[in-house]
Design a protein that fits this description.
about 65% helix; mainly alpha
Length: about 140
Amino acid sequence: MDGTHMQIGEVAARTELSLRTIRHYEETGLVIPSARSQGGFRLYTEADVARLMVIRRMKPLGFSLEEMRDLLAATDRLDSGTGLGAEEREKLLERVRGYERAAAEQVEKLRVQLSRAEDFAATLRARLEQAEPHGSAGAAQD
């Protein structure tokens, strides 16, 4: 290999996705290896890694595979730039804006959940500190 292609193991390490997950995304058509080696190994480019990172970032925000596919299709079309009229470009940009708004809403919901979880953990810590005998720095020593 000439350094422009990576095997699936390197891609998995770089994206922190499992081999199984990457293969699943391939089966669903979200990412297709750019090439195959003579031995039949999947070969990926930096663009493939970037695509997987978009998918990886969308997943915890609750986006469906279809939504991922739609966003990737829109950004692929925008990135190609060829034959895009002003109206089509604006429609594509509005689709991407919609995903950005949805992501921002999910981030805000996650912030609220995290704040509640932190409050709960602090409440439990305070309760434990209150319940421990005074002067005890931890477990009793024998």
